[in-house]
């Protein structure tokens, strides 16, 4: 979700810039690291297109439900998660997908997740977006979200410095519904919970408004698939399918924020700092990422793809027109929100994508704890927004 409206402009220049950068990036990755990373950049580009054109997000959907009891966005998220578990659980139970070893995001359930997710949820409403929302709105031309992204990276780096202490706090062992109930049982339990959440949103929305909100009507349906907007439910299905493709190519679900920590560490080391003694960066996978080229990092490649895909989508929609006259209070909210987003994501083993979407799609109970704690943080964030925003946000992507 963003907090600024972008005025229409001619799409051609930015379309060519975004599409050309995406193609050149894929070519360079294919030559340097092989076709798999090139394919993952393309998948990232598709994520960016879907997120922008379907206006699919988390921050605005949760805010609208909290403040107005409108649940269309939450129900779309439940559909996305339902399709994801149906696709993911059998593959995770088998341990392979199309011959590729696969594993999910399964993390401990403890104080770190509880606190981190709450901070992330608060940061969503102050920063103006979640992890995916920050990337696709940056690509869409929202200048304010560049500030959120910059401090998202700073917060992520600080989170890695404190990571070991937070992990020393009480926690239960990682638990997966796939391991406890098997693929079929885990799917049944998950679908029942998704249905319950969707039913609650229907009841609360009808109680407040008398009827459910209808989907916006599109005037020019002939060009909607090129210029948008796309139906919200189409976005839900597309994101689940793209996450499944990511699982097949990368061997794990879609993630975003680990790359922010890596970017922060790389910049910090260029400036003369040293993170190698920090516990987070001593883990084998993180240590290897720190030593390697940033372009060999799957999450980095996909994040860049998301930004470029959203740039293409915004340009096709005629809405790529960055504005830099940002009110001071909005800048302060972006700084504070970005720091909370980055710090919270490290503590909670991920963000709305890695912990919520990826965690629940993996059957991990930490994903469900993340949802509850982050939603609580969003409630506080909604209450604090009037301190920073003098008028209701006018998003470029209504549902993020």
Provide a descriptive summary of the structure in words.
This protein has 400 residues and is an all-alpha fold. The protein has one domain. Helix content is 69%, strand content 2%. It contains 16 helices and four strands. It has helices at 12-33, 35-53, 59-68, 72-94, 111-127, 131-139, 143-167, 177-209, 224-227, 232-250, 257-270, 284-291, 298-316, 328-347, 352-361, 365-388, and strands at residues 96-97, 100-101, 109-110, 171-172. A two-stranded antiparallel sheet has the order 1-2. Strands 3-4 form a two-stranded antiparallel ribbon. β1 (96-97) and β2 (100-101) form a beta hairpin. α3 crosses α16, α4 (72-94) runs parallel beside α10 and α6 (131-139) crosses α13 (298-316). The radius of gyration is 20 Å and the shape is globular. Mean pLDDT is 93; it is low at 1-9 and 393-400.
Distance between the ends: 4 Å
User: Strand sequence of the main sheet, in spatial order?
Assistant: 1-2
Number of helices: 16
Major sheet characteristics: 2 strands, antiparallel
* Number of domain units: 1
Residues in helices, as a percent range: 55-70%
Low-confidence stretches: 1-9, 393-400
Q: How many strands appear in the DSSP assignment? A: 4
Please, what is the average pLDDT?
93
* Helix-and-strand structural type: mainly alpha
Overall form: globular
């Amino acid at each position: 979700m963003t907090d600024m409206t972008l005025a229409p402009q001619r799409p051609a220049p930015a379309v060519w810039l975004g599409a050309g950068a995406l193609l050149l990036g894929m070519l360079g990755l294919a030559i340097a690291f092989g076709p798999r990373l090139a394919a993952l950049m393309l998948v990232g580009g598709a994520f960016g297109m879907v997120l922008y054109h379907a206006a699919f997000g988390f921050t605005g959907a949760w805010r609208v439900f909290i403040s107005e009891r409108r649940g269309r966005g939450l129900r779309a998220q439940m559909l996305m998660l339902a399709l994801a578990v149906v696709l993911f659980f059998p593959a995770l139970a088998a341990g392979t997908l199309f011959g590729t070893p696969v594993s999910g995001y399964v993390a401990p359930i403890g104080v770190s997740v509880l606190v981190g997710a709450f901070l992330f949820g608060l940061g969503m409403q102050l920063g103006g977006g979640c992890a995916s929302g920050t990337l696709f709105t940056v690509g869409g031309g929202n200048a304010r979200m560049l500030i959120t992204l910059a401090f998202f990276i700073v917060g992520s780096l600080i989170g890695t410095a404190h990571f070991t202490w937070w992990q020393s706090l009480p926690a239960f062992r990682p638990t997966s519904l796939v391991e406890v109930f098997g693929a079929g049982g885990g799917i049944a339990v998950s679908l029942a919970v998704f249905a319950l959440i969707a039913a609650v949103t229907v009841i609360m929305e009808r109680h407040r408004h008398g009827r459910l909100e209808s989907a916006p009507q599109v005037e020019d349906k002939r060009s909607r698939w090129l210029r948008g907007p796309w139906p919200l439910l189409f976005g839900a299905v597309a994101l689940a399918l793209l996450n499944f493709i990511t699982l097949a190519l990368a061997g794990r679900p879609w993630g975003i924020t680990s790359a922010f920590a890596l970017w922060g560490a790389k910049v910090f080391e260029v400036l003369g700092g040293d993170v190698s003694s920090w516990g987070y960066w001593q883990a084998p996978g993180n240590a290897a990422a720190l030593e390697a080229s940033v372009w060999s990092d799957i999450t980095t490649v996909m994040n860049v793809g998301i930004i470029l895909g959203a740039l293409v989508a915004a340009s096709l929609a005629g809405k790529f027109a960055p504005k830099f006259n940002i009110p001071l209070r909005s800048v302060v909210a972006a700084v504070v929100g970005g720091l909370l987003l980055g710090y919270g994501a490290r503590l909670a083993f991920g963000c709305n994508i890695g912990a919520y979407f990826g965690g629940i799609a993996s059957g991990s109970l930490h994903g469900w704890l993340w949802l509850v704690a982050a939603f609580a943080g969003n409630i506080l964030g909604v209450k604090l927004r009037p301190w920073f925003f003098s008028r209701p946000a006018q998003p470029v992507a209504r549902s993020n």
